[in-house]
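Final report, Chapter 2: Outcomes

The project's central promise was a pipeline that accepts a single protein chain and returns its three-dimensional structure in a standardized token representation, suitable for archiving and comparison. That pipeline is now operational. To close this chapter, we reproduce one record exactly as it appears in the project archive, with the input sequence first and the structure output second.
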Amino acid sequence: MTSQVSKTVLRLEAEDVRGLNDGINFKKNQEDGKCYIIYKVKDKIRACVNQCKHQGGLFIKDIEDLDGRTVRCTKHYWKLNVATMEYVNPPDSFMQDELEAVLSDTDGSLELVELNPPDPWTAEPREAQELHAGEITLTYITHACMELKAGNKRMMFDPWLIGPAFARGWWLLHEPPSDAMDRLSQADLIYISHMHSDHLSYPTLQRLSKKRPDIPIYVGDTSRPVFWYLEKSGVNLTNINVVPFGVWQNVDEHLRFMILMDGIHPEMDTCLIVEYKGHMILNTVDCTIPNNGRLPHGVDVMMSDFAGGASGFPMTFHGGKYTESWKADFIKNERKKLLNYKTQLVKSLQPKIYCPFAGYFTEAHPSDRYIKETNSKNSAADLNESIRKSCPNILTWTPVPGSVLDLALALKDPSNRRVITEPPNGTKIFKDSWDFDLYLDELKASASAEIFKYKSWIQFYYNWAGFKDYNLVIRVTETDDDFKPLKGGYDYLVDFLDLSFPAVRPKRDHAYEEIKNRVNVMRHVVLNGRLWDDLYIGFNNRMSRDPDVYHHKFWNHFQIELPLLQIFLNIYI
């Protein structure tokens, strides 16, 4: 079985993108001669290969089409509605395989991306066998951490059990069961979806490594390695397995799993299919468009994120339109869109059981009270209610720490009260203490490192980072926890056009951002060569920009593409 790969099959430059008509567009790749259909309406784009699924005929415009959505095959006159990717003649026949349309925020270009094979889970199919009570159970631990028991094997997903995520911005909302760490150390294998610290928790893994450094951990073969920071972290894990996408990994005779890439962030994000005796569990975790939107229908259990709020935007922005009322309206609309999207996704995939998870975090530190009050999130219960209204046949599960779902009982009789076992009365559900000082002291220690006595670290750091030839100037100001300029802190400009460090802004036209960073977090990031997710996703900065434009190329570099070799400080020292 060959590894699944992602390939760009057609690229249009910005001028060609602007030339696309509303409705149906036919495009040809001049290099290989393959043809594609692009459907555009307002700012939304859908695309597919120009090839009929029946017998491979070419589509042309349908002269009987009155609304500009349908194409007709030249062989047998089959018709495809490109707006929905459904074949309308004959009806109820096929769905067209859709390509991922990726529109660049930086240069306006458009890439059509294809996964091959598109449905790798169909390889080596297995018939579903009858299950016995207790044979497959899912136990919710906290946030994105689930324990899957399948036969005599135990598998853990994304264990974040202690400490903060994103430096000090996120803290666990739910109290993990008292035996959570024991469960983790006794697992047969662990799946970690991606490198973000609410999924790959080094404080958790540090404690785990003292008990079982050789526990098998599986991650996808992303271009930014999931464990890129392992050596620097000092955590001793000796059995990390990087596996190719779209290939079944056999655990035993009945249990296997497959890791799939995300369509939007294939360089870092993954999702998972687990199969036991022909019964599938789909865990899409944080993927924006898992597997480019192609997912198995009718799985036994589906789990996904639901909450929103996993970004500094717009809470950490100020100036211009970023009033409190604008932020509140934006956040409300975004959460509503996410809830509707998740409802429609579940409706389209028709899993037997759906569980929202991977959204149970809180901005618990007192200095982040503003973020906590502003950054409203979707409720898992509200999403499940929306799904039940849309799909009353789907069983929904709103988990609390320690609650257990028995798949065999759910498939036999979803109304059986024993399907979901809740934790005993009196079990602590929500955390009320987080050991703030223990983790914030580590950040403070970084801030007082010897190198920060010398201003030359600034030039050294940004040269190491390697981002340049981009017409953006940033002003970085070190602040205290309340974002007030720090007495004796650094306040400097970086011009990324030529990677210089001017005393004043250049006179030429340029994009400009002011970024106020909590000094302890920024210096921790610098000292350890960490990604800027700790700053941006962790709500540890405040920003304004002129013009009000998101600089994808800049943020993508500092959040994903910083050098893997963390040698600059060694050289500097």
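Archive annotation: Residues 324-349 form the longest helix (26 residues).
This record, like all others produced under the grant, will remain available to the consortium after the project formally closes.
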